[in-house]
Amino acid sequence: MEIANEDFPTSSAIMASPNGLSTAHAQQPLFSFGVITDIQYADIPDGRSFLGVPRYYRHSIQVLQRAVDNWNRLTKLKFSMNFGDIVDGFCPKEESRSAVEQVLKEFDYFDGPVYHMIGNHCLYNLPRSDLTAMFKIPSLRGEAYYEFSPSPEYRFVILDGYDVSVIGRPLDDPKALEAIRFLEEKNPNDDKNSPAGLLGPDRRFLMFNGAVGKEQLEWLDKILKESAECEQNVIVCCHLPLDPDAATPESLLWNYEEVMGLIRQYRCVKACVAGHDHKGGYSLDSHGIHHRVLEAVLECPPGADAFGYVDVYRDRISLVGTGRMASTEMVFES
Ligand SMILES: Nc1ccn([C@@H]2O[C@H](COP(=O)(O)O)[C@@H](O)[C@H]2O)c(=O)n1
Ligand SMILES: O=P(O)(O)OC[C@H](O)CO
């Protein structure tokens, strides 16, 4: 991985041209798209996370406004992606709908489609069926997982990490019951959001996380098989991170091992991108898959930013970050 500033590319981001002069990547990307995550807007005073990290709830919508301005000025982005948590759980519940609408209105100023993911904070505010409708999630039967192909060479798979979850479903829903049983078995604490006593990646067995369920895994298998057959590269997107080397254990998808086990049966997935773990992270796993956890908007102090865009090539993707979002060059192994 190379991390560079948007204005000052690293030496490997500069390619030699035939006349000996150096120019930035001569090759044109197949397409480009915008990225942003964990806006967690709420019209409430600044606060802190459980671990004491400052959170700027009102400023976060201004970061989104600057992101949309920046994306529009680039005039080359085919779409943008929001990796979840557009409103915060501390948003007063009577304001939840209008807060979500305010944030979506800012996304509407973007000159292109926006693909959304549902995060835990979205589900603290509104029922999942309201969110899938408001986010215009392009799934066939109202699920929050879906896929799209912006060019013949690429497919994007958006996973729903809160498919099996205690949050966002009525407590008598079979998937909520499955999640309650799972947490009872895996987390001995009375407060199921507390990782106390859990070790390493087991610290992910928290109520604010969730799992990809059986039908979604079957759907993923079908999509990956099709993509492998037509030699498409796949980018997997999920609010929850899928690799312990890219994220804090408390932020991982409950069944990340099962999902990665399936992904590794095929060679088409080149990168997995996530949000949720606000500090961000990166890893290259043992199977050559890049994992990039994006830095959160919510923790940007006034004036600071965290958003970016990705240039997509056949053999790599290049994240160009602004502000706290680091730039990352992800070259594919095969
Ligand atoms: N190490 C931790 C992290 C969190 N919790 C619990 O989760 C809740 C939400 O955490 P935030 O990071 O969003 O503030 C928090 O209120 C705690 O109940 C925890 O116990 N230990
Ligand atoms: O966005 P939150 O408040 O659910 O926080 C998630 C934690 O940062 C995961 O480690």
UniProtKB/TrEMBL annotation:
It is an enzyme of class 3 (hydrolase). Keywords: Hydrolase, Metal-binding, Zinc. It comes from the Eukaryota. The keyword Secreted does not apply. InterPro entries: Calcineurin-like_PHP (IPR004843), Metallo-depent_PP-like (IPR029052), MPP_ADPRM (IPR041869). Its cofactor is Mg(2+). It catalyses: ADP-D-ribose + H2O = D-ribose 5-phosphate + AMP + 2 H(+); CDP-glycerol + H2O = sn-glycerol 3-phosphate + CMP + 2 H(+); CDP-choline + H2O = phosphocholine + CMP + 2 H(+). Residues 32-279 form the Calcineurin-like phosphoesterase domain. Its EC number is 3.6.1.13, 3.6.1.16, 3.6.1.53. Belongs to the ADPRibase-Mn family. Monomer. This is Manganese-dependent ADP-ribose/CDP-alcohol diphosphatase.
